[in-house]
Amino acid sequence: MAGVAGLTFLALCLPFFGALIAPVFVRRLGHHAAWLLALLPGLAFLHFAEFLPNIAAGQVVQGGFDWVPSLSLRFSWLLDGLSLTFALLITGIGTLIVLYTGGYLKGHTDLGRFFSFIFLFMGSMLGLVVSDSFLTLFVFWELTSITSFLLIGFDHRREASRRAALQALVVTGGGGLLLLAGLLLIWQVTGLGSMSELLRSGDTLRASPFYLAALILVLGGAFTKSAQFPFHFWLPNAMEAPTPVSAYLHSATMVKAGVYLLMRLNPVMGGTAAWQTILPVFGAATLLVGTLLAIRQTDLKLKLAYTTVSSLGLLVLLTGFGTDYAVEAAVLYLVAHSLFKGALFMVAGIVDHETGTRDITRLGGLRSAMPLTFAAALIAAISMGGLPPAFGFLAKEEIYAALAQTSPAAIALTVIAVAGNALMFAIAFAVALRPFIGPLTETPRHPHEAPPLLWLGPALLALLGIASALLSGPWHAYVSSPMASAVGGKELHISASLAPHIGLPLALSLATVLIGIFVYWKLDRARFFMSVMLRHLGPGPDRGFDGFISGLVRLSHALSRILQPGRLEIYVAVSFLCLAAMLLIPLVIHGELPAMPAWPNLQWHEATIFLIAVIGLAAVIRARDRLTAIISLGIQGFAVAVIFLLFGAPDLSFTQFVVETLSVVILAMVMTRLRLSPSDRRPPLKMIAHAALAIACGAGFALLLLKATQAPFDLTLTAFFNHYSKLIAHGDNVVNVIIVDFRGTDTLGEIAVVAMTGLAILALIRIRAGGDRKLATNDPDREEKPDLEVRMEAERS
User: Fold this and answer.
1) Long-range contacts at 573-582 (CB < 8 A, ≥ 24 apart)
2) Residues near 158 by beta carbon (within 8 Å), at least 6 away in sequence
3) Structure pTM?
4) What single string gives the DSSP state of each residue in 74-103?
5) Does 649 reside within a domain?
6) Residue 610's domain is classified under what CATH number?
7) Which residues form the NADH-Ubiquinone oxidoreductase (complex I) chain 5 N-terminal domain (predicted)?
8) Number of DSSP helices (H) and strands (E) in the chain, helices first
């Protein structure tokens, strides 16, 4: 097992290794490097495929190693039917995307950088779906947001790309923070920090009074990542990325992360009224919004992007519906969507690459010039439209079998599913037929068939969509059923085949096809109707995001002007105000104010020292200039040093004498180089406020020290240092050993602070001295001095 765990860890690291070597390979081999780089995700795919028999037999593969054992943090992975299917999709489609990239970006100056980003993205998503511990899940979750930001904004010279990348990062990154809070809450409620332990915990989480709060936080992360309404707007804007990114993003990676999380948590968070209400409602709204907005578009990628939004809504709807049939339908549709959507996006990229446009109204007659591309597009569209003999047909039949119930909610969801699927049918064939049939139209580039690096990916994915349906028995045994069992939390066996469900599901399928054909026939009119309707509805969430960001920037500027006005006086006052609050508020709120001690019986010489300290304080307050205040402040420090000496702390007294002497001397040296004129021009009210603040800080320290000294003295540390100072540090002076050995890093930090302070003082002196010499040089009335005298004066400075 140790060898298998090592190979699995190596497979997880292969994409990150590819990110390191990709620029070197591209520099040497150009776009042909794609053939070698594709071996890395291909090898990872083969490794994960070896687990199919074991997972199909009901086993779960776990592994990992301790990261921070004291906090029970592990870098661990979990492979069951759900995570293994995602891993195969990520690595398998990722292999084809790497090859496709080599052809699509052939000759691009930043091809090596793009390969690095795509491999980082692949590794992040792969780590996310196999993560067992909450910590690694969240790390990879946020890493997918960061790497998608790099990919979406790859063409960073274009403002639209930068805006789309920032929008995706803000929306998904903000959702990631909600997810972090949700995972921490689940960890706190259950005491479990890994998915495998949580899945075995039964109803522990559902029975907790914090279940609803945890659910809302988790849904916030999942809905933003999987572009659920009203967070759907970032996904179509992400089409500013190159087509390889779009194809990978929509088929197997980031947008499926939220769906993966919901499926993963279904056994422990599903089955409640909240789960079965929130997910279907938002999923249904997303399904309708995505398809209606897709009808309006003329750009091939945007049409496909909005249908991805609707497909994600359908997956969320099915995951939350709560029946075994719904779970099976969600599993089948997720796999089918990955295959046909990856193929169609690659087809859209090929059309754009070979003709110079993606506008569906400017395309036509490409069938003779691009026969292989047309065949791949048509097969993928058949699957997306839910027609036999494609895998999408199995998924659509299972969807209607799951939703065909008599309750009002089920009827409403069924109507929405039929409408959404019919619109997706029309859009699928609009993408697959409109550019290829009819008379050949003039395009910016002369159309011709794409090279193998481009058409290989969509052809394989389209054919796999047919083969998986024709071989549905073995496919379900090794892929669909284990995945459904993991999502449902119990053993499920999928038996869907090309034989339709006789009855209502078949009738719903026929209605879907007929409505889809009608919409396809009236597509131009439907597009016009949607444009008019959206124009009357006004700006949507996309414009709202711009307003939110603009308001956030204005708010930050306003707060900066308040909190950072550029005046040192305000910064110091706020710092001392916070210090006084931290000292006094806990003592008052928790009733920890110390009892006032009896007045000490002081000897005359002790009282004299205290009197000198009070006189020094009065001198500081009454000082007319800075130099007098600094020297008067020294009286305070020396008086405290004498008090230490009188009360039996000679080493502390000596340290205080040295520090106080150096402080006074150094500050006095600085002040002699600065203006010493009176500078305290504060009005009386401000002086009173500052005095109150100073008294509050002093009182806070005094009360805290009194409280500490009134508590029973704990000799644990004393005994520890007395015992180990000689044994470990080989020193008899316990105080010296503590400072030099036990607190060695602390002492080093103090020395560093003193050194930096000295350097800053030296810089101030040199700046002041340089300014004086410059002023003296420019003074026409200044009496000339011999060069030697000038040099001696400079050395003294």
Assistant:
1) 573/690, 573/693, 576/693, 576/694, 576/697, 577/693, 579/697, 579/700, 580/693, 580/696, 580/697, 580/700, 582/700
2) 240
3) 0.79
4) EEEEEESHHHHHHHHHHHHHHHHHHHHHHH
5) yes
6) 1.20.120
7) 69-115
8) 34, 2
